[in-house]
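Kindly inspect this today.
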Amino acid sequence: MPQPLALRGSPLELIVTDERAPIARPREIPGLVRVRHGVYAVRSAWHDLKPWDRYLARVHALALRRPGTTFCLESAAALHGAPIFGEPRHLHVFDTRWPTSHRQSDVVLHTSVDPRATIRIGDITLTDAVSTAVDLVRAIPPAFALAVADAFISPRQLGLTEVPELRALARGQRNPRNRRRLEWAWKNADARSESTGESVSRAVIDWLGYDRPELQTRFRWEGADDRVDFFWPSSEIVGESDGFGKYGAADPEEVAWRLLAEKRREDRIRRHVRGFARWEWADVMRVHALDEKLRMAGVPRVAATQPAMLATLRTNPRALPSRSPKPGYRSPIEPRTLIAESPFENRQSARGLG
Protein backbone atom coordinates (compact mmCIF):
# COMPACT_ATOMS: atom_id res chain seq x y z
CA MET A 1 0.00 0.00 0.00
CA PRO A 2 1.50 3.39 -0.96
CA GLN A 3 1.91 5.88 1.86
CA PRO A 4 1.60 9.67 1.56
CA LEU A 5 4.88 11.50 1.21
CA ALA A 6 3.46 14.47 3.09
CA LEU A 7 0.44 15.35 5.16
CA ARG A 8 -1.82 18.34 4.72
CA GLY A 9 -0.32 21.21 6.64
CA SER A 10 -2.15 23.77 8.72
CA PRO A 11 -4.19 26.11 6.49
CA LEU A 12 -2.98 29.11 8.46
CA GLU A 13 -0.09 30.05 10.72
CA LEU A 14 -0.48 28.81 14.28
CA ILE A 15 1.17 30.79 17.06
CA VAL A 16 2.28 28.80 20.10
CA THR A 17 2.50 30.97 23.20
CA ASP A 18 3.04 30.82 26.93
CA GLU A 19 -0.25 31.58 28.69
CA ARG A 20 1.71 32.37 31.87
CA ALA A 21 3.35 35.44 30.32
CA PRO A 22 2.96 38.29 32.84
CA ILE A 23 2.09 40.90 30.24
CA ALA A 24 0.33 41.02 26.86
CA ARG A 25 -1.34 37.64 27.17
CA PRO A 26 -2.34 36.45 23.68
CA ARG A 27 -5.99 36.07 24.68
CA GLU A 28 -6.05 39.79 25.38
CA ILE A 29 -4.69 40.80 21.97
CA PRO A 30 -7.68 41.80 19.76
CA GLY A 31 -6.16 40.54 16.51
CA LEU A 32 -5.67 36.97 17.74
CA VAL A 33 -8.10 34.11 18.30
CA ARG A 34 -7.44 31.07 20.46
CA VAL A 35 -7.53 27.82 18.52
CA ARG A 36 -6.86 25.85 21.68
CA HIS A 37 -5.00 26.43 24.95
CA GLY A 38 -1.66 28.01 24.12
CA VAL A 39 -2.23 28.07 20.35
CA TYR A 40 -3.49 31.16 18.53
CA ALA A 41 -4.13 32.39 15.00
CA VAL A 42 -4.81 35.72 13.35
CA ARG A 43 -8.52 36.34 13.85
CA SER A 44 -9.30 37.51 10.31
CA ALA A 45 -7.52 34.52 8.76
CA TRP A 46 -9.34 32.13 11.10
CA HIS A 47 -12.77 33.48 10.19
CA ASP A 48 -11.97 33.24 6.47
CA LEU A 49 -11.38 29.48 6.69
CA LYS A 50 -13.86 26.93 5.41
CA PRO A 51 -15.25 24.64 8.15
CA TRP A 52 -13.08 21.69 7.12
CA ASP A 53 -9.99 23.89 7.13
CA ARG A 54 -10.83 25.17 10.61
CA TYR A 55 -10.94 21.55 11.66
CA LEU A 56 -7.55 20.82 10.09
CA ALA A 57 -6.10 23.80 11.95
CA ARG A 58 -7.53 22.42 15.20
CA VAL A 59 -5.86 19.07 14.48
CA HIS A 60 -2.50 20.77 13.97
CA ALA A 61 -3.01 22.84 17.11
CA LEU A 62 -3.50 19.68 19.15
CA ALA A 63 -0.41 18.14 17.56
CA LEU A 64 1.59 21.16 18.69
CA ARG A 65 0.27 20.94 22.25
CA ARG A 66 0.41 17.15 22.58
CA PRO A 67 3.46 15.73 20.79
CA GLY A 68 3.21 11.99 20.33
CA THR A 69 -0.55 12.00 19.78
CA THR A 70 -1.82 9.37 17.31
CA PHE A 71 -4.68 10.79 15.25
CA CYS A 72 -7.54 8.67 13.88
CA LEU A 73 -10.97 8.99 12.24
CA GLU A 74 -11.76 12.52 10.92
CA SER A 75 -8.53 13.90 12.37
CA ALA A 76 -6.39 11.40 10.48
CA ALA A 77 -8.56 11.79 7.38
CA ALA A 78 -8.05 15.56 7.39
CA LEU A 79 -4.29 15.06 7.57
CA HIS A 80 -4.39 12.52 4.73
CA GLY A 81 -6.41 14.98 2.63
CA ALA A 82 -9.63 12.94 2.52
CA PRO A 83 -13.05 14.62 2.36
CA ILE A 84 -14.27 16.22 5.59
CA PHE A 85 -17.93 17.21 5.85
CA GLY A 86 -18.49 20.46 7.69
CA GLU A 87 -16.42 20.95 10.83
CA PRO A 88 -16.35 17.80 12.96
CA ARG A 89 -17.21 18.36 16.60
CA HIS A 90 -14.30 16.45 18.04
CA LEU A 91 -10.64 15.72 17.52
CA HIS A 92 -9.98 11.98 17.47
CA VAL A 93 -7.00 10.25 19.05
CA PHE A 94 -6.14 6.53 19.19
CA ASP A 95 -4.79 5.56 22.60
CA THR A 96 -4.86 1.96 23.80
CA ARG A 97 -3.76 2.86 27.32
CA TRP A 98 -7.42 3.37 28.22
CA PRO A 99 -9.89 0.51 28.81
CA THR A 100 -12.75 2.44 27.19
CA SER A 101 -13.12 5.32 24.77
CA HIS A 102 -13.95 8.66 26.36
CA ARG A 103 -13.93 12.43 25.85
CA GLN A 104 -11.64 15.03 27.31
CA SER A 105 -13.17 18.38 26.33
CA ASP A 106 -13.21 18.42 22.50
CA VAL A 107 -10.83 15.45 22.21
CA VAL A 108 -12.12 11.88 21.99
CA LEU A 109 -9.64 9.20 23.00
CA HIS A 110 -10.40 5.88 21.32
CA THR A 111 -9.27 2.44 22.30
CA SER A 112 -9.97 -0.85 20.55
CA VAL A 113 -9.57 -4.60 20.71
CA ASP A 114 -8.47 -4.36 17.07
CA PRO A 115 -5.00 -2.93 16.43
CA ARG A 116 -4.51 0.00 14.07
CA ALA A 117 -1.57 0.40 11.70
CA THR A 118 0.01 3.82 12.15
CA ILE A 119 2.47 5.96 10.23
CA ARG A 120 4.64 8.88 11.26
CA ILE A 121 5.37 11.74 8.87
CA GLY A 122 7.42 14.57 10.28
CA ASP A 123 6.30 15.17 13.84
CA ILE A 124 2.79 13.74 13.41
CA THR A 125 1.58 10.17 13.97
CA LEU A 126 -1.73 8.96 12.56
CA THR A 127 -3.53 5.81 11.49
CA ASP A 128 -2.55 4.68 8.01
CA ALA A 129 -4.78 5.09 4.98
CA VAL A 130 -6.49 1.69 5.23
CA SER A 131 -7.27 1.95 8.95
CA THR A 132 -8.41 5.56 8.59
CA ALA A 133 -10.72 4.75 5.69
CA VAL A 134 -12.30 1.72 7.37
CA ASP A 135 -12.84 3.53 10.67
CA LEU A 136 -14.37 6.60 9.04
CA VAL A 137 -16.58 4.71 6.58
CA ARG A 138 -17.95 2.77 9.54
CA ALA A 139 -18.77 5.96 11.44
CA ILE A 140 -20.22 8.57 9.07
CA PRO A 141 -23.45 8.75 6.99
CA PRO A 142 -23.33 6.36 4.01
CA ALA A 143 -23.17 8.88 1.14
CA PHE A 144 -20.27 10.62 2.84
CA ALA A 145 -18.73 7.23 3.58
CA LEU A 146 -18.80 6.43 -0.14
CA ALA A 147 -17.00 9.70 -0.89
CA VAL A 148 -14.29 8.80 1.64
CA ALA A 149 -13.85 5.32 0.16
CA ASP A 150 -13.67 6.76 -3.36
CA ALA A 151 -11.10 9.34 -2.31
CA PHE A 152 -8.76 6.79 -0.76
CA ILE A 153 -8.83 4.48 -3.80
CA SER A 154 -9.03 7.03 -6.64
CA PRO A 155 -5.71 7.82 -8.36
CA ARG A 156 -7.11 11.25 -9.24
CA GLN A 157 -7.67 11.95 -5.52
CA LEU A 158 -5.51 10.17 -2.91
CA GLY A 159 -4.92 6.74 -4.45
CA LEU A 160 -3.55 5.31 -1.19
CA THR A 161 -5.29 1.93 -1.12
CA GLU A 162 -7.64 -0.42 -2.97
CA VAL A 163 -11.01 -1.96 -2.17
CA PRO A 164 -9.63 -5.48 -1.46
CA GLU A 165 -7.37 -4.03 1.25
CA LEU A 166 -10.24 -2.11 2.81
CA ARG A 167 -12.57 -5.11 2.72
CA ALA A 168 -9.95 -7.45 4.16
CA LEU A 169 -9.20 -5.18 7.11
CA ALA A 170 -12.88 -4.57 7.87
CA ARG A 171 -13.72 -8.28 7.75
CA GLY A 172 -10.81 -9.11 10.02
CA GLN A 173 -11.94 -6.75 12.77
CA ARG A 174 -14.03 -7.95 15.71
CA ASN A 175 -16.18 -4.83 15.72
CA PRO A 176 -19.66 -5.70 14.35
CA ARG A 177 -20.86 -2.11 14.07
CA ASN A 178 -22.20 -0.97 10.66
CA ARG A 179 -20.87 -3.96 8.75
CA ARG A 180 -23.64 -3.61 6.18
CA ARG A 181 -22.59 0.01 5.57
CA LEU A 182 -18.99 -1.09 5.08
CA GLU A 183 -19.95 -3.78 2.57
CA TRP A 184 -22.22 -1.33 0.74
CA ALA A 185 -19.36 1.17 0.50
CA TRP A 186 -16.84 -1.40 -0.76
CA LYS A 187 -19.35 -2.69 -3.32
CA ASN A 188 -20.10 0.80 -4.66
CA ALA A 189 -16.70 2.48 -4.33
CA ASP A 190 -15.26 3.45 -7.71
CA ALA A 191 -11.69 4.52 -8.38
CA ARG A 192 -12.86 6.55 -11.38
CA SER A 193 -14.57 9.08 -9.13
CA GLU A 194 -12.73 12.40 -9.20
CA SER A 195 -14.50 14.48 -6.56
CA THR A 196 -16.58 14.35 -3.41
CA GLY A 197 -19.52 15.84 -5.29
CA GLU A 198 -19.43 13.04 -7.85
CA SER A 199 -19.35 10.36 -5.15
CA VAL A 200 -22.25 11.74 -3.12
CA SER A 201 -24.21 12.37 -6.34
CA ARG A 202 -23.75 8.74 -7.30
CA ALA A 203 -25.20 7.55 -4.00
CA VAL A 204 -28.22 9.85 -4.30
CA ILE A 205 -28.84 8.89 -7.93
CA ASP A 206 -28.93 5.25 -6.86
CA TRP A 207 -31.24 5.90 -3.89
CA LEU A 208 -33.62 7.88 -6.11
CA GLY A 209 -34.00 4.75 -8.21
CA TYR A 210 -32.35 6.03 -11.39
CA ASP A 211 -30.28 3.91 -13.72
CA ARG A 212 -26.63 3.80 -12.72
CA PRO A 213 -24.41 5.95 -14.96
CA GLU A 214 -20.99 5.27 -16.41
CA LEU A 215 -18.24 7.48 -14.97
CA GLN A 216 -15.70 9.67 -16.76
CA THR A 217 -16.72 8.77 -20.31
CA ARG A 218 -14.70 10.37 -23.11
CA PHE A 219 -16.15 11.76 -26.33
CA ARG A 220 -14.35 13.16 -29.37
CA TRP A 221 -16.61 15.60 -31.12
CA GLU A 222 -15.92 18.58 -33.38
CA GLY A 223 -12.19 18.24 -32.90
CA ALA A 224 -12.43 18.32 -29.11
CA ASP A 225 -11.77 15.67 -26.46
CA ASP A 226 -14.53 15.94 -23.82
CA ARG A 227 -14.76 13.86 -20.66
CA VAL A 228 -18.04 13.90 -18.74
CA ASP A 229 -18.75 13.03 -15.11
CA PHE A 230 -21.78 10.81 -15.79
CA PHE A 231 -23.15 9.15 -18.91
CA TRP A 232 -26.24 6.99 -19.34
CA PRO A 233 -25.46 5.14 -22.60
CA SER A 234 -28.89 3.48 -22.98
CA SER A 235 -30.58 6.88 -23.09
CA GLU A 236 -27.63 8.98 -24.33
CA ILE A 237 -27.80 11.42 -21.43
CA VAL A 238 -24.89 13.27 -19.84
CA GLY A 239 -24.73 14.50 -16.26
CA GLU A 240 -22.25 16.94 -14.74
CA SER A 241 -21.62 17.47 -11.03
CA ASP A 242 -20.52 21.08 -10.86
CA GLY A 243 -17.89 22.28 -8.45
CA PHE A 244 -16.90 25.93 -8.54
CA GLY A 245 -13.32 24.98 -7.73
CA LYS A 246 -12.67 24.28 -11.39
CA TYR A 247 -13.46 27.91 -12.19
CA GLY A 248 -11.27 29.25 -9.39
CA ALA A 249 -8.59 31.73 -10.36
CA ALA A 250 -7.15 34.87 -8.87
CA ASP A 251 -7.54 36.80 -12.12
CA PRO A 252 -11.18 37.81 -12.94
CA GLU A 253 -10.39 37.60 -16.65
CA GLU A 254 -9.17 34.04 -16.16
CA VAL A 255 -12.41 33.16 -14.37
CA ALA A 256 -14.46 34.66 -17.21
CA TRP A 257 -12.43 32.73 -19.78
CA ARG A 258 -12.95 29.45 -17.92
CA LEU A 259 -16.68 30.03 -17.66
CA LEU A 260 -16.88 30.77 -21.38
CA ALA A 261 -14.85 27.65 -22.22
CA GLU A 262 -17.15 25.53 -20.05
CA LYS A 263 -20.24 26.98 -21.73
CA ARG A 264 -18.83 26.18 -25.17
CA ARG A 265 -18.00 22.67 -23.97
CA GLU A 266 -21.54 22.16 -22.67
CA ASP A 267 -23.08 23.47 -25.89
CA ARG A 268 -20.91 21.07 -27.90
CA ILE A 269 -21.93 18.09 -25.74
CA ARG A 270 -25.62 19.03 -25.95
CA ARG A 271 -25.44 18.92 -29.75
CA HIS A 272 -24.51 15.23 -29.63
CA VAL A 273 -26.65 13.75 -26.84
CA ARG A 274 -30.36 13.43 -26.15
CA GLY A 275 -30.31 14.93 -22.68
CA PHE A 276 -28.04 16.93 -20.39
CA ALA A 277 -28.26 17.67 -16.66
CA ARG A 278 -25.98 19.86 -14.56
CA TRP A 279 -26.22 20.15 -10.79
CA GLU A 280 -24.28 21.44 -7.82
CA TRP A 281 -23.73 20.36 -4.23
CA ALA A 282 -26.84 22.12 -2.91
CA ASP A 283 -29.01 20.23 -5.43
CA VAL A 284 -27.65 16.92 -4.18
CA MET A 285 -28.22 17.80 -0.53
CA ARG A 286 -31.79 18.94 -1.24
CA VAL A 287 -32.39 15.70 -3.17
CA HIS A 288 -35.61 16.93 -4.83
CA ALA A 289 -33.61 19.44 -6.91
CA LEU A 290 -31.35 16.71 -8.28
CA ASP A 291 -34.36 14.44 -8.76
CA GLU A 292 -36.10 17.09 -10.86
CA LYS A 293 -33.04 17.74 -13.02
CA LEU A 294 -32.51 14.05 -13.73
CA ARG A 295 -36.19 13.55 -14.51
CA MET A 296 -36.29 16.55 -16.85
CA ALA A 297 -33.18 15.30 -18.66
CA GLY A 298 -34.88 11.94 -19.26
CA VAL A 299 -32.74 9.67 -17.08
CA PRO A 300 -34.69 6.40 -16.72
CA ARG A 301 -35.89 5.40 -13.28
CA VAL A 302 -35.40 1.65 -12.86
CA ALA A 303 -36.11 1.06 -9.16
CA ALA A 304 -38.11 2.40 -6.25
CA THR A 305 -36.70 5.27 -4.23
CA GLN A 306 -35.07 4.49 -0.88
CA PRO A 307 -36.44 7.11 1.56
CA ALA A 308 -34.52 5.73 4.54
CA MET A 309 -31.19 6.10 2.75
CA LEU A 310 -32.07 9.56 1.42
CA ALA A 311 -32.95 10.62 4.97
CA THR A 312 -29.34 10.05 6.03
CA LEU A 313 -28.40 13.18 4.06
CA ARG A 314 -30.39 15.46 6.34
CA THR A 315 -27.88 15.69 9.16
CA ASN A 316 -24.32 14.83 10.00
CA PRO A 317 -24.37 14.19 13.76
CA ARG A 318 -20.58 14.25 13.93
CA ALA A 319 -20.32 17.86 12.69
CA LEU A 320 -20.86 21.19 14.38
CA PRO A 321 -23.89 23.24 13.30
CA SER A 322 -23.27 24.95 9.97
CA ARG A 323 -23.07 28.32 11.67
CA SER A 324 -19.43 29.02 12.48
CA PRO A 325 -18.59 28.21 16.09
CA LYS A 326 -16.99 30.75 18.33
CA PRO A 327 -13.19 30.60 18.44
CA GLY A 328 -11.80 28.27 21.03
CA TYR A 329 -14.85 26.01 20.85
CA ARG A 330 -15.12 23.70 23.81
CA SER A 331 -17.36 20.70 24.11
CA PRO A 332 -19.95 20.96 26.89
CA ILE A 333 -19.27 17.31 27.67
CA GLU A 334 -17.43 16.80 30.92
CA PRO A 335 -13.89 15.37 30.68
CA ARG A 336 -13.67 11.57 30.50
CA THR A 337 -17.35 11.11 29.76
CA LEU A 338 -17.84 7.66 28.23
CA ILE A 339 -18.94 7.68 24.59
CA ALA A 340 -21.25 4.93 23.46
CA GLU A 341 -21.06 6.07 19.83
CA SER A 342 -17.34 5.46 19.43
CA PRO A 343 -16.83 3.40 16.28
CA PHE A 344 -13.91 1.59 17.91
CA GLU A 345 -14.23 -1.68 19.76
CA ASN A 346 -13.41 -0.98 23.41
CA ARG A 347 -10.91 -3.35 24.94
CA GLN A 348 -13.24 -4.23 27.82
CA SER A 349 -16.27 -4.78 25.65
CA ALA A 350 -17.26 -6.47 22.43
CA ARG A 351 -19.22 -3.35 21.55
CA GLY A 352 -17.08 -0.19 21.03
CA LEU A 353 -14.65 2.24 17.72
CA GLY A 354 -16.39 1.81 14.40
